[in-house]
Amino acid sequence: MSSFPGWVGRVRGVFIDTKGPWGPSGSGDEPPADEGHGGGPWGELSDGGRRPLSGRSGVAPLEELLRRGRMRLRGSGGGFPGRPNGSILLWVAAAVVLLWLVVTSMHSISPGERGVVTRFGRYSYTLGPGVGLTLPAPIDRVQKVDVESIRSIDLGSQSSEDLVLTGDQNLLDIAYSVRWNIRAPELYLFQLAQPEETIRQVAESAMRSVISQVTLQDAMGDKRSVIESQVTERMQRILDGYNAGIEIQGVAIQQADPPAEVNDAFKEVTAAQQDAKSYINQANAYALQLTAKAQGEAAAFDKVYEQYKLAPEVTRRRMYYETMEQVLSKVDKTIVEAPGVTPYLALPQVAKGAQKQQDEGQQQ
Fold first, then answer.
1. How many degrees, rounded to 5, is the angle at CA 14 between CA 11 and CA 20?
2. Residues 6 or more apart whose Cβ sits within 8 Å of residue 132
3. For residue range 83-105, what is the model confidence (pLDDT) as tens digits?
């Protein structure tokens, strides 16, 4: 860089004419101050006119115009013709530095995000939603992390290695999903090298541990919700031990079946067990119905017995009439009054015969 001013000086010498049209000028851009001579071909007359070169010194107007033109082309700070001077370059550099400071120091964080600030690569603090200020880069750097989005990972039912052993020594083909989000972004970024892979392994470990404590029927039946909650609690406990900064929102079991090789036979067994449960439930319902009916009849008999104790003869006769009414109302009967026998017209039989003939006529 030290040779640059000398090079500029040589180039300037090309554009700067050190000689006037009537001999060399003085040092720099000023015309020679020759005694008794002007700076041009004419001197100055005492009355303001022009005369040939004489003993008086002066500056020729033509050379002065050329000098001023060269100065305007070079600029007040020197340099190439038409090149900006140093003050303009300084203002441009200052504007660039100011823009860089503003861009790297002000950060807009959305409501669902957090800004993790690192100073020289080391965690410093976390920015909340809004506009935050930091030191300019590369001193401080901000990494935005979404903490509200619920992420999901699907596991299981992909190969024979995903089969899980139940507590009653049966294999279970299970598929489930894990929902999670980021609770502490600074821990999420710096504690785990591969967060999703860690969550996957923790989920598989927790699911195998819980399934190993239940039977095959429980895993396929009513205890799915219990298994899901236990797996969620176990996963959260393990990840908190890792300081992972992750919160498990829930585990959903999507499939829980025996292996494909025995699935058909197992379905038949399951159907037979369901039929047996259905028959047992029907028998229990019928037993409850009979029990309720018997209890109702016993309560009615107790009420009749109370009335019987108050008036035995009346109650006995009433019970007799009610019983005969129920019996005789359902049979054909002929009433004969004693002691003499009177001809009796069987009106019910006549009515039945007439109704039968009418029905046959309608059918024809």
1. 145
2. 106, 107, 109, 115, 142
3. 555 678 888 888 888 888 888 88
Model confidence band, residue 17 (pLDDT cutoffs 50, 70, 90):
very low
State both tokens at 79. 């340099």
Is pTM beyond 0.85? Reply is: no
Which residues have CB under 8 Å from 179's CB, separation 6+?
A: 150, 151, 152, 248, 249, 250, 251, 252
Separation CA 97–CA 109 (nearest Å): 24
Taking only the tens place, the pLDDT of each residue in 319-357 is 888 888 888 887 776 666 666 665 555 666 666 766 777
